[in-house]
């Protein structure tokens, strides 16, 4: 009887040991599977159809993004969807509302960073998009001699990223034209305006043409400066054109000035082509930036190199 009891006890102990080891092995496999699952990155490329959502053809960031696709091997097979700034922001908003992945071309100043507080720039290890940029004012040769007061005001114009973005966001949020928002901004910021007009004399109907690009950021600066010039008696025309035409117009003397030259990276090619034929008045805004942008909920994507090749 004792022997049978010992045998049963031995069998029970053995079975429990086997079950314990099996449970440990199963848990270990489960943990390994979990770690593999959590460590594996989602193929963002497949989810966004290997497409970067961009803006207008010929824009500085469009040209730079085309270079990035060439420079980064992992972007091989990707395409840049070129449409318009409005279309890009619409697609971005839809993706954010549905918490879906999206990769867009982005830049500061832009009101989308005010509207959407969950955006992040992807790291750019190859430096294709450059570092922090500045927006410069350029004038045609001879403007200082022919229209010294306009030249002086444009030369003294300087503001911040926050100034520009506030106008852009208010216009977008209210549906009001940027020109009207810019006029109100000028009225509400007399101290800054007085710095730009220091030593500038009033004129009587002198014509001045500002050449710019059609982006909201440049529409904001052009309309602000135009309003201040008009208050000093100038008749101002704002001509929106493609960025290549903008540089050509100032270099050829077809336009008087521009406030929209992004340097040292975004418009570098255009600047180099015409640098001997215009006057560089320096930065009117510092702290600008361009690059590829994604929503922060895309946690596994923090660098351009995190994007999978096709």
UniProtKB/TrEMBL annotation:
Q: Where does this chain mainly localize?
A: membrane
- Top-rank taxon, per record: Bacteria
Please name the InterPro entries in this protein's record: ABC_Gly_betaine_transp_sub-bd (IPR007210)
Q: Which residues constitute the signal peptide according to the record? A: 1-23
Question: Zinc: present as a keyword of the record?
Answer: no
Annotated localization: Cell membrane
Record keyword Signal present: yes
List the PROSITE patterns.
Answer: PROKAR_LIPOPROTEIN
Instruction: Give the matching Pfam families.
Output: OpuAC
Could you list this entry's UniProt keywords, alphabetically sorted. Answer: Cell membrane, Membrane, Signal, Transport
Sequence ranges assigned to domain ABC-type glycine betaine transport system substrate-binding in this UniProt record: 43-187, 208-309
Its name, as the record gives it, is Glycine betaine ABC transporter substrate-binding protein
């Amino acid at each position: 009887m004792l022997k049978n009891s010992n045998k049963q006890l031995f069998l029970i102990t053995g079975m429990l040991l086997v079950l314990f080891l099996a449970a440990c092995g199963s848990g270990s496999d489960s943990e390994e599977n979990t770690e593999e699952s959590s460590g594996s990155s989602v193929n963002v490329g497949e989810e966004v159809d290997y497409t970067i959502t961009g803006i207008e053809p010929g824009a500085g960031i469009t040209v730079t993004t085309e270079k990035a696709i060439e420079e980064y091997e992992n972007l091989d097979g990707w395409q840049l969807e070129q449409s318009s700034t409005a279309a890009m922001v619409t697609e971005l908003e839809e993706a954010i509302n549905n918490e879906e992945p999206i990769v867009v071309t982005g830049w500061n100043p832009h009101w989308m960073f005010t509207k959407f507080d969950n955006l992040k720039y992807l790291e750019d290890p190859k430096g294709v998009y450059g570092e922090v940029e500045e927006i410069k004012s350029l004038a045609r040769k001879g403007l200082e001699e022919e229209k010294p007061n306009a030249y002086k005001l444009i030369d003294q114009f300087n503001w911040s990223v926050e100034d520009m973005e506030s106008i852009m966001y208010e216009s977008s949020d209210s549906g009001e034209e940027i020109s009207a928002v810019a006029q109100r901004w000028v009225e509400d910021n007399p101290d800054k305006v007085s710095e730009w007009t220091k030593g500038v004399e009033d004129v009587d109907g002198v014509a001045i043409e500002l050449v710019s690009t059609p982006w909201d950021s440049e529409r904001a600066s052009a309309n602000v400066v135009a309003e201040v010039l008009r208050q000093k008696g100038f008749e101002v025309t704002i001509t929106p054109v493609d960025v290549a035409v903008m540089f050509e117009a100032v270099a050829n003397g077809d336009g008087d000035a521009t406030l929209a030259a992004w340097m040292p990276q975004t418009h570098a090619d255009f600047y180099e082509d015409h640098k001997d034929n215009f006057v560089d008045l320096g930065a009117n805004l510092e702290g600008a930036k361009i690059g590829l942008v994604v929503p922060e909920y895309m946690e596994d994507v923090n660098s351009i190199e995190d994007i999978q090749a096709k």
